[in-house]
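Folds vary. Our protein:
___
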Amino acid sequence: MQNHSPSDATSSGGKTGDVNRSERKRLKHREYVKKSYNKKITTLENLRQEWNTLDKQYAALLQSGSAKQDDDKADSSSTVSQSETLRKYLQATELKKWYQEENDRLYRLNASHMKVQSRMAQLVDSSEAAKATLPGTVSSSRQYHIHPLSASAYAGIIENATNDVLRFARSTDKLSTGARVLGWTDQREIRGRTLKFALQKEFSISPRELLQRSWGIFSNPDEFPKVYGSALNVNFYVLQYIDADTILFYRRLPPSSNSGCVVKTVFLLTRRQIAEGYLMLFRSIDKELVHFEEVDVDGIPQIRLDPSAAFKLVSSEMWIDMYIWVLFYSIPKEPKKCLFHFGGATTTSIWLREVLFVALRWENMVVGSQFTLTAE
């Protein structure tokens, strides 16, 4: 049996006390930071609401003042001066409204031009690509052949996915961590081995405008990769423009340092109007449905190897599902605001962190950077 001196016990107790005090101090500081952050968020929201209220009241006063002065037949110079100033202000207000509507129109026009630009770029790339390939290699100049489905077949796939998305979005049984990261909150639902998740945030942009900006990115194969991390080096290719609101895409992720597999997906991108606002859907389909095939620009299949090498190359491919959606909710009595809902389904929680990063990159591209310095 070992004997411990009183001094050892005192020393041990002192260290334990220091650790406890340090831990309490750290927890207290964390709680203070959290309360301070929540207070700032609440204050900003209250100020924003107050500003909107005052702005509406001011506009109403101007309108009533204008009507009153129109009825006033007094010839005093001060009244004439005030009436002229008010008239100019009202003209400026109407001009502002016109510019906002014109901005919406230009966004729609830009989205149409980007679609045409993407098509022309594909034609140019195809015509200028080298036709000669070395034996035993994979051509860097690829074309993708498919046998398109009927419009009703595509519509059936989209309708089934849309119904599933809206069931999840409208469900009141979703779980949440309660955490808020840069304004984003989370929702999730687990059914069997499938995890459905969503991130939500409110923006001071109308749902339609936010949809148009997002569509301009996701419908463009050159812009789409930017919402992913640069390390992934992901590529997107348009296989078919089904209609003005639906595109068939092919996504390809080259082998990473941790894996020798090429990750591939054929998926539909579509946008639809729903009761609550708008839906943008990303839904993968079986490549065999459209008989997807990669070929060289001269029409020869891309793999030109002996049977054993060809089997090894094919086995290094991995086809994965893609099931992601975006909901642009209208906010009652707030037409210039939108509740953005970014969701998806997966069989693993590994992608959840990357999903948050994708949402932040989207926000930076569509809305603007959230990391700005402000003077207090």
About this structure: The radius of gyration is 29 Å. Residues 7-73 form one domain.
